[in-house]
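subagent[fold] <- orchestrator: predict structure for attached chain, return tokens only, no commentary.
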Amino acid sequence: MTRTMARRGAQLREHILRTAKTLFLESGFERTSMDAVAARAETSKRSLYAHFPSKDALFAGIVELSRELYLEQIGVPDGDLADPVEAAARYCGRLLQVLLWTTSVQSLRMGIAEAERVPGLAAGYYESVFEMPTARLGEFLERRTVLAPATATATARALIAQTTHPDLLGCLLGVRPALPRRPDPATLEDDVDLDRIRAVAASLLPRGS
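subagent[fold] -> orchestrator:
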């Protein structure tokens, strides 16, 4: 296979994934057929099945794509900020901003709906939106504060838990509206209560951090 053909294959795969994700969010996993995905993606069923032999494989690909997009959007705690409390707070704010985005809320609901049938895929969502951000924050706290590794990880977990609750749960249950616009660092303070997050970070991190 030539390099040009490989690029086309990778581009087609991502196009199929993005199309399938849109369809799943519109109609639900069970009600979306592979025929519908092929038609919306304007590709042949042969090409679709060459990339994804089953709908579960397609869903797994969507989870992996979502993982990459989540982590890219959230990034890592800003090491350029002199105050690690502010860096941790802004990192948690970006995480919450991404989680409250309409598309994220819909994706999480879909993962919850399929959790019993395909627990491994639902676990992939959990790893993307909680485990990996916790690991990144824990590593940052270990480097920039006096916390020992195990304590840094535990503190990161507590900080993320306290800053995402209850807003995320409210969105998932439809009690509060999701954020309709794509997450943007420029609108962070408009989209989330950063002062509350700063207060949580200050209460959990050691003084002088």
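orchestrator: received. Logging for downstream: The chain has a mean pLDDT of 90. The CA atoms of residues 1 and 73 lie 33 Å apart.
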